[in-house]
TrEMBL record:
It is a multi-pass membrane protein. GO terms for cellular component: cytosol; endoplasmic reticulum; Golgi membrane. Pfam families: Got1. Belongs to the GOT1 family. The chain crosses the membrane at residues 6-35, 56-74. One of its GO terms (biological process) is retrograde transport, endosome to Golgi. This is Golgi transport 1B. May be involved in fusion of ER-derived transport vesicles with the Golgi complex. The keyword Cytoplasm does not apply. It comes from Columba livia. Keywords: Golgi apparatus, Membrane, Transmembrane, Transmembrane helix. InterPro entries: Got1, Vesicle_transpt_Got1/SFT2. It is found in: Golgi apparatus membrane.
Length: 127
């Protein structure tokens, strides 16, 4: 969990510092390594290389590769798109959990935000 957390931290910090190549590259490597350690190498491979997720995997891993090559802005755009395609089945679970957190649940139930969160929370494609 620590590797994944540090990976997310470095990715976030790299984007805050105007897409710093080194921080984004470290964040990408730590995130993928942490995910592999958390769920195991075989399950990680099976998750990323399912037939219906090949497009998402291509965008995500292609974005990682482009960041490592040295084009951080383009790589992060591809990577974020691939991330949303890969993990869209988990969004309803995350939204349901966040709605139970006291302060965040109140914010998510505000009139303008509630309709947007409801659209994100709906998912016909389960993982």
């Amino acid at each position: 969990m620590g590797l994944t957390g540090f990976g997310v931290f470095f990715l976030f910090f790299g984007m805050i510092l105007f897409f710093d190549k080194a921080l984004l590259a470290i964040g990408n490597v730590l995130f993928v390594a942490g995910l592999s350690f958390v769920i195991g190498l075989e399950r990680t491979f099976r998750f990323f290389f399912q037939k219906h997720k090949m497009k998402a995997t291509g965008f995500f891993l292609g974005g990682v590769l482009i960041v490592l090559i040295g084009w951080p802005l383009i790589g992060m755009i591809l990577e974020i798109y691939g991330f949303f395609l890969l993990f869209r089945g988990f969004f309803p679970v995350v939204v349901g959990y966040i709605r139970r957190v006291p302060v965040l649940g109140y914010v998510l139930n505000l009139p303008g935000i509630s309709s947007l969160v409801d659209k994100v929370g709906e998912s016909n494609n389960m993982v």
